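Narrative of accomplishments. A recurring question from our advisory board has been how the design workflow behaves on a single, concrete structure rather than in aggregate. To address it, we present the structure tokens for one chain from the evaluation set, followed by the sequence designed for it. No filtering or post-editing was applied between the two.
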């Protein structure tokens, strides 16, 4: 039978091995980063590619990136017809906190409406530009005029610098905003 000290040493060693394997798996993953050397077929232009195959899933931008945190536009759905104000509902597995709280390693949401291309990873996101919104809640109401629009969701850090694609890739949906009918 092992002593309590020997059990603690074995548990610690096991945690170190698991951590090393995770680091190795991430480092040796087959994901492509936009900072990697590019081939002509790589899609890291930063331009959202609308998904016409599914009316329920947002499109990842770019498609070949292996991200550590997930980022999702839950509403509106790809291709959905909506009225203004548009409620954008989002979710992420990344730690989310308002920038004024200065939580280490936290991020907050940014929505770009009809801003393609949008701010690249590692660059400061403009705070005073029309069509750019930042928030820390899971929903945002936007007054969007009638017509076809693209909504892109990314993460920004406490200094309003865009989180790199390798940490959380951008997602996008295309929507159509219409005038409300008298019954709405």
């Amino acid at each position: 039978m092992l002593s309590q000290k020997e059990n603690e040493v074995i548990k610690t060693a096991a945690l170190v091995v698991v951590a090393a394997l995770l680091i190795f798996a991430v480092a040796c993953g087959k994901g492509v980063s936009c900072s990697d050397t590019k081939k002509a077929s790589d899609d890291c232009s930063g331009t959202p590619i609308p998904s016409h195959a599914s009316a329920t899933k947002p499109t990842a931008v770019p498609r070949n990136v292996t991200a550590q945190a997930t980022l999702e536009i839950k509403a509106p759905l790809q291709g959905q017809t909506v009225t203004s104000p548009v409620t954008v509902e989002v979710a992420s597995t990344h730690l989310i906190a308002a920038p004024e709280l200065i939580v280490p390693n936290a991020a907050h949401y940014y929505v770009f409406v009809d801003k393609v291309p949008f701010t690249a990873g590692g660059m400061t996101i403009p705070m005073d530009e029309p069509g750019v919104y930042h928030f820390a809640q899971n929903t945002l109401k936007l007054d969007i005029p009638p017509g076809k629009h693209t909504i892109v969701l990314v993460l920004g850090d406490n200094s309003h610098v865009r989180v790199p694609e390798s940490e959380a890739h951008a997602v996008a949906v295309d929507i159509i905003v219409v005038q409300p009918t008298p019954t709405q």
